[in-house]
Structure formats: structure tokens, C-alpha cells
Amino acid sequence: MITSMTRCSTLSSNRDHARERYKAYIAPDRVKKVPHYGPMFSGLNHYPKQQIQIDTCDPVPNFMSRRWAGFDRRQPLVMSHQNAHLNVSGGDRYKYSRRPIIPFLQQVPPDVLLQTTRVDPMMPPPEQQQSRPATPLTWTVGCQTMYRESEAQTEPYTPEYVTEKGTIPELLTLASLSYNRGLPAGLAEVEMIERAREKRAWEQTLPPVEDMSQLSKRRAMMEELERKEWVIREKEIEKLQQVRLQVLKQILEKREEDNTGTNTERLNSIWSKKQVSKENNFKKKRTEHVKALRKLGAAREKVEGKLSKRNVVDDYSSFASQVYAPQTRVGVFLDRGSELYNVKNRYLNTYEGLLELEASLPDYVTQPRIKIPNLRSGKGGAQKRFEKRLKELDDTADLIKNDKEKAIPSSCPAKVPPEGHSSSTTTSHA
After folding, report:
1. Which pLDDT tens digits describe the chain residue by residue (430 residues)?
2. pTM over 0.85
3. According to the 3-state scheme, what is the secondary structure of the chain?
């Protein structure tokens, strides 16, 4: 949209162009929600889960002009009326500057558009300009500061060297030493250098190897030197062991101090907790003691009792009161007079009464009658199976009954129980 407005020049003034450009800058399609990953699922107002931002990606390429199209058309006309003899740095300076064009809304930092001019106001007049050599593409600039950091300091630089033919400088014997590994030299390095000098001087006094007559003397001198070197080496080993023992002793002492400090802190913590617990228990016992004394004092004041008016509402509202659950110690017996409700009847207390009561009952009481319900035959398979099995049981019962009647002879009369026996049995059932 900005590109079309710029090319077509459809706006009447530069102000309208700036307004439309700002509206395009804050268009809804450029507004996006950016989540905060910490409180992403928060619902609190003071910990928002997202924020609104405008997309920084500009749809208009950078090589395209964003200025008002009428500016390019009006600029040649303005420049044609300019006087070449105007004093830019004096009273005519105001003609070469304008107020910045700031959009009317300030919610988002606006783009400040300054009007440009094709004439550099800082340049001198053409007659005063002088030719100067071309500026080189590259140049070297050095900088020296007063301060530096020790971490940035490197190892000392060792330059290259050349020795004369046939000479070996004494300094080259120290080539094995380097920075922080023997240099700067200490007492041990100085002693090593002195021993090396003595050894070189001793080598000058050795008999030549070609002289066979002095071979035993050469061997004896070399053995003596070897013994001296071994003694020196043993002393160095002893010193190194002493240093190691001293370091080990310091480490052990430091560990003992740390352990002692830790144990002391632990004991102090336990003692503090015990003291706090002791004070709390003492306060608790003291409170209970004062409470018990207060109760005893209140009980002594009510030894003879105190008359108080009965509260009927409280008595009937509480089911634990004397109205619902009277206490025996105050003279209330709930089962008093219960024997008055005992039933005393001749029919229940004597055997003859029971017989008389049984005789007065109808026969359906002593001889219950069971009536088999008439089950209607249904159309379901379960009902048919039930009726079939019931019929089989009835047929089996009839067969068993007929077999028993055939087995018993007709001459044997049936035994009839005595009258008293049947009465007692009936009574027991009743």
C-alpha cells in the first residue's frame, strides 16, 4: 500500500502521506502475540502470559523510497530559486532546515522523517574549496592505553638468535627453562646454574680419553663426581619429601579444623533446639499448673454449691440433660414400677390354660392349608420346561405312593395316637 501511494502520488500533502504510512505501520496484520515462556499458563494480571508486538519485518524493500512523491517534484523548483550567494551559516540558515514530520500517534516509537536537501550546508562556497588528495582505502591506526588486564598478558617473547661458529654461549645451557617453569629464576635455579658451572670447570680438568696411563685416574674422578651428584640428588629428594609432608600436614590440619567447626556447629544447633524445646515444655507445664490452680480455686469457692435458676430451654435443647437422660444418683430410676406392666394370665401360666386356649383356636391355625397357585402356561421355553419337570415329579410321586399302598396289607389297622399325646404335640407346636 505504501509503495502504490508513493508511486502514484495520490496524497495531497506530506502530512497525509505520514499519516497513511503510520497506519500501514500499525496495521492489524502486523500485530502479533508473543508468549512469555516462564508464565505461559498464568492467569494473573501482573504476570501476563503474552504481549502484543508489531512485526519488525518490513514488507517494503529497503531500496525503495518512502518519501512523499510530491517532494521530488517540488525540490527542483525550490532549488532553482535558491541564491548562490546566501550565507548558510549566518542569517539565512533557517532557509535550509525544516521541522521534523512526526506522526500524530505516539503509542509506538514513530519514524522521524527529516527533510533532506541536495546542498550540503556545511560545505564552504565553491571559490573557497580546495582540492585535497584522495582518501586511501585502508590505513593503520595505533592505540596505547594506560591500563591493561593481567589476564590478557601473554608469556614473554623470546626472539630468534644466531651464534658464532665454534662458540657455545653459556646462556644456551638454560634453554630448558621457560616462563613459569624455572623463570624467573629462584634459589634452586641459581644453585643448579652454579653446579653446572662447576661441572663444566671439572670437565676441563679431566685427563684426555686417549691417555691410557691416566685412565684409572679419570675413572676415579668420575666415580667421585657421581657420588657427589647422588648426595645432591638425595638432598633434593629429602627437601621435596619435606615439602610434601608439610603440604600434607597443612591439608590434615585444615580438614581437622573443618571437621571441628562442623561438629561444633552441629552441637550448637542441637543444643539450641534442646533449649528451645526445654523452654517450650517449661512454658507448657507452667500454663497447665496455673490452669489447675485456677480450677482448684474456683472449685473451693463452690464447695457449698450455688443456687441457680433452671433454664428450661437449655434442658430441652440438649439431649444429654436430665430431662432426656436423668441420673440415678439424683434419685431417678427409669425402671421403677415396671412390674405393674407385667401380664398375668391363667392361659399363659398353666398347662391346662394352654390346652384350653389351643382348643378355642380354629383348625386353620394348627393345621395350615397351603394352596398351590395356578400357574398359567406361557409361550416361553422356560415355562414349558418347568411344567414338564413338575409333571414328571407328580408322576413319580404317584408311583411311589401306589407302591407303598400295595406293600402294606389291608389287615393291619393304622395306629392312632392317644389323645394326650396329640394334645401335647399340638401344644408344643403352638
Report:
1. 444 443 444 566 778 888 888 888 778 888 888 888 888 888 888 888 888 888 877 777 777 777 776 655 555 444 445 555 555 666 677 776 766 555 544 444 445 555 555 666 666 667 766 677 777 888 887 766 666 555 555 667 777 777 888 777 877 777 778 777 777 778 888 888 888 888 888 888 888 878 888 888 888 888 988 998 899 889 889 999 999 999 999 999 999 999 999 999 999 999 999 999 999 999 999 999 999 999 998 888 777 666 678 889 998 999 988 888 888 887 777 777 777 778 788 888 889 988 998 888 888 888 878 877 766 655 567 778 888 889 999 999 999 988 888 877 554 444 544 444 444 334 334 3
2. no
3. CHHHHHHHCCCCCHHHHHHHHHHHHCCHHHEEEEECCCCCCCCCCCCCCEEEEECCCCCCCCCCCCCCHHHHHHHHHHHHCCCCCCCCCCCCHHHHCCCCECCCCCCCCCCCECCCCCCCCCCCCHHHCCCCCCCCCCCCCCCCCCCCCHHHCCCCCCCCCCCCCCCCCHHHHHCCCEECEEECCCHHHHHHHHHHHHHHHHHHHCCCCCCCCCHHHHHHHHHHHHHHHHHHHHHHHHHHHHHHHHHHHHHHHHHHHHHHHHHHHHHHHHHHHHHHHHHHHHHHHHHHHHHHHHHHHHHHHCCCCCCCCCCHHHHHHCCCCCCCCCCHHHCCCCCCCHHHHCCCCHHHHCHHHHHHHHHHCCHHHHCCCCCCCCCCCCCCHHHHHHHHHHHHHHHHHHHHHHHHHHHCCCCCCCCCCCHHHHHHHHHHHC
